[in-house]
Amino acid sequence: MEAQRRNNRRSNILLLLIVSLTATLVTSSASPITVTTGDKVELSLYYEALCPYCENFILNYLYKIFDNGLISIVDLKLSPYGNAKIRSNGTIVCQHGEWECVLNNVEACAIHAWPVVSDHFPFIYCVESLTYEAKYDEWETCFEKLNRDPKPVTDCIASGYAHELALQYADEINALEPPHTYVPWVVVDGKPIYDDYTDFVSFVCKAYKGSNPPQPCLGLSLPTTTPNYNAKPLNHVCYKEDDNAKLKSILSETISATAAS
Fold first, then answer.
1. d(CA 147, CA 214)
2. DSSP letter at 253?
3. 92-93 and 85-86 as β-strands: parallel, antiparallel, unpaired?
4. How far is the C-alpha of 18 from the C-alpha of 261, rounded, in Å?
5. pLDDT by residue (tens digit) across 223-254?
6. For residue 228, what pLDDT is reported?
7. What is the DSSP letter of 69?
8. Which of 2, 95, 227, 253 could be stapled to 193 by a disulfide with Cβ–Cβ 3.0 to 4.6 Å?
């Protein structure tokens, strides 16, 4: 119990830090680095809400770009769909069950409602911090924690527009070349970095061609080889075809159906 309270306090402190940092990015007029849109490096994350490795990447790696200044040279794009599939009748089945579809939609609607990354990332971080603790049904508490109006997101979900967004994200991930084989699937300027995804900072810094690189790029040992897509199978990703995830999805849907009957 005490360990759980410590984890909750840590999550809340980090969330407050991220909100503070993103707010500073928006309001500060004295930023030491000014980067034009054309010079920014496109960093895309294709993920799904309940893949534990996606949660870990967002909570323990990605958030740091708002702290270390790397966001000043990055155009960050999030795509919450992952390894979901569309049935012949148009419904979507998610790899980790019904709750994953719900939370993918929640995060898609948040991105739609607040398209500026400094607005939607804190909300997504908050939701992912709850999923990390298996508190799936508490996602709405993030509105209060972040002092956000819930209406744009809840209206998006209630109207069915979340499904349209999911289909758009499905088209995006299915159009990737080379095709994604697992999540988190991290892409830097159109090129996947495969199992090097936790080292994404090095690839962003290498791709940046502008002047005045931010502090994280200074003195950094940049990758000299292309990412290895022929590496051995990873144990820190969620593959497109995962038998354990399928079983979990079936069990989750069975429990939900039983509870509703």
1. 30
2. H
3. antiparallel
4. 42
5. 655 665 554 455 799 999 765 555 555 555 55
6. 58
7. S
8. 227
> Which whole number is the average pLDDT over 147-159?
98
Print burial letters for 24-61: b (CB count within 10 Å at least 16), e (below 16). ebeeeeeeeeebeeeebbebbbbbbbbbebbbbbbbeb
Q: Are 32 and 85 in contact (CB under 8 A)?
A: no
- Going along the chain, which residue ranges are E strands? 41-47, 74-80, 85-86, 92-93, 182-183, 185-188, 191-192, 238-239
The bridge status of strand 74-80 relative to strand 41-47 is parallel
Contacts of 74 (CB under 8 A, 6+ apart): 40, 41, 42, 43, 65, 204
Only one residue has tokens 């979990």, namely: 248
| 211, 204 contact by CB (below 8 A) | no
Q: What is the pTM of this model?
A: 0.82
Q: Which position has the token pair 């994280």?
A: 216
pLDDT per position as a tens digit, 53-98: 999 999 999 999 999 999 999 999 999 999 999 999 999 999 999 9
Cβ 84 vs Cβ 48: under 8 Å? yes
Share above pLDDT 70 across residues of the chain, in percent, rounded to a whole number: 72
